[in-house]
Each structure stands twice: as C-alpha cells, then as structure tokens.
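It would be a great kindness if you could assist me with a short task in structural biology. The matter concerns a single protein, recorded as an amino acid sequence and a row of backbone structure tokens. Kindly check, if you would, that the fold set down in the tokens agrees with what the sequence suggests. Thank you for your consideration; the sequence and its tokens are set out here:
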Amino acid sequence: MKKFCFFLLILYFAAGSRSLAETKQVVVGSKSFTENVILGELATNLIRSAGVDVQHQRGLGSTRILWSALLAGNIDIYADYTGTIRHEIPARLNLSTDHEMVSALAEKGISITKPFGFNNTYAIGVKENLARTNSIQAISELAKFPDFAFGFSNEFMDRKDG
C-alpha cells in the first residue's frame, strides 16, 4: 500500500528574488475536499501570524486545477500528497524517489517543505457482514468480485495510482 504524506508547495516568488515578508499578498489555494481546505486554513493562519497579508481561495478543484493555478501565479501555496505530486504532476517523468521529485519541481521554480508528519494511506470500506460472508480481509481479494459496485471520486479514477 502506498503512503501519501502532505507536502506544501511554494512557488518561488519571482524566481527566489523576493522573500515571503516582501510579498504584498500571499494566495493560498486548496482543493475541494475538507482535509485540504483545513490545511489551507492552517497555512493561511500561519502566514497571517507572521504579519503577511494572505488570502485563502478554498475549494478550487482537483490537483490539475491547483497545479495550473500555481504555475500561472494565481496561487502561491497549496498542500498536496507526495504520491499525487509524484504520479500526477510530472507524470511522464516516472519519478521514483522524493529526491527526483524535488529536483523535477525545482526545475519549474517550485519548492516543497518536509512532510507534515502524517499519511493518508488508501483503504476501502466494506460492510462488515459482506466482508465476513465473503472472507474479505485485503483489498487484493476484491478482484474475486467483479460484480461489486465501487464508489470513488472522479479524480481518483483518473489517476495512475487510482
């Protein structure tokens, strides 16, 4: 099972020539799910507590939307999973390590922080009686049941790691 940690993506202000304190306003973006909005709020509050003017644009959409907004300079910061970054952002590069990911992002003028210290490993919920009746204890065992109906977000279904 893949472990996904959050990283904070930071666009270097004018290719690193300005510091956060010299910026007129920092724009924090967040995806359209609660956990990401909360992380956006945390980043917003931390930046504000440093005396910097900050705006949080909540619920902007999927990874691709926020990544495009970051590259275009419409947002300055957003939180994302390392697995999402590795598999969805520079998808054609086949990055296998965090070091390779950091280097690829740096080439685009993007910096990332260390992981936040928690992960969001994927799991699938199954009704207890269904799991017991069919002796399901692992995700891999679901392959035996092609008639089961699965419910995932569109973004998850469109991803390589989904």
Summary: The CA atoms of residues 34 and 65 lie 17 Å apart. The longest helix spans residues 34-49.
